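Materials and Methods. Structural model of Epoxyqueuosine reductase. The 381-residue sequence of Epoxyqueuosine reductase from Polynucleobacter sp. UK-FUSCHL-C3 was retrieved and submitted for structure prediction as follows.
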Amino acid sequence: MHSQAFSSELHNQLEGIRSWLDIRAYELGFGQLRISDTDVSEAVPKLASWLAEGRHGEMGYMERHASLRAQPEQLQAGAIRSICVTMPYLPQNSSKTIEEQFSAELARLEQSQEAVISLYARGRDYHKILRAKLQILVTELEEKIAHLQSNEGGLQYRVFTDSAPIMEVELARKAGLGWRGKHTLLLHREFGSFFFLGEILINLPLAVDEPVEPHCGSCQACIDICPTQAITAPYALDARRCISYLTIEHPGSIPVEFRRAIGNRVYGCDDCQLVCPWNKYAQHTSVPDFAERHQLGSSTLLELWSWSEMHFNQRHEGSAIRRIGYSRWRRNLAIALGNTLASDLDIQSKEDITNQLRDGLQNADLLVTEHITWALEQSQR
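The predicted structure was written out as tokens:
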């Protein structure tokens, strides 16, 4: 890529380029495409305060790369714009409406022997899918500009998909892809929040889009439903209390104070999104890779507990879940099975779970042993 200045001829073509970007993004499966500048200074003080309070937990990378998050141009020299996109990830379900799907998901949380895995993680790893599609988009854009410029112009860019220290929600908010909801996720009146974000930092001076007005109003459904009270105030999240953090990012022993609240959630938590009124407008994905695999939306806890490490690696190949590793997977399942033992079960079911947990002690590491031991103790509650 070259760093030559863009000519006035190219500037005259920017409006046409933007129209092409919108069309091509839709063809690739993106929901929205908007443009922002790279100034995130408005969000920097809040990030600094969040880090200073230790609310990032053991996500040390958040603190190590704080300066890069504050200055996106350090991630890509010459960047003056961020092409921001969303990609819906809810798979199609021909027999249920969106609201019926969400009701069914909430109902499964009350079925103690069922294993609940966050909706976004039931298909293939979004990092690879979004990155590949963003790369297609920017490669075609580069070719289009090269044609317009007779190869005299130069494009500098870098693609991001939750893969580098970039304040993607802030860039997306500035671009008009939504507002930051009280749960801190990006939220849109016409698309809800069940989508992934991606960015391309670029040196192309495209016109920027305007932010949208927030529309949470007095609603606090997401705050009220949070099992661990991780949303400590509107627009304030303590990751150390969040079930998604605890079951995915947290590497060690899960604090005892949160184990019962985790319930039968094995990987992540969707509660705050499932009750959000705006998600009645959530969109289904057009990307086949996000379709559910290996019955992850209907498996029981004991079915997943029966997986060997080989099964775990094979069945989660190409999945975001695989990165937590087999030990954390078993840790999470042990907590969920312990909560099942504490629920109203028939004698045979209790016996089956107890026997499976005891068998699991034979080859368990220290982390899993601790959580199995706790789980077995719950049958006495």
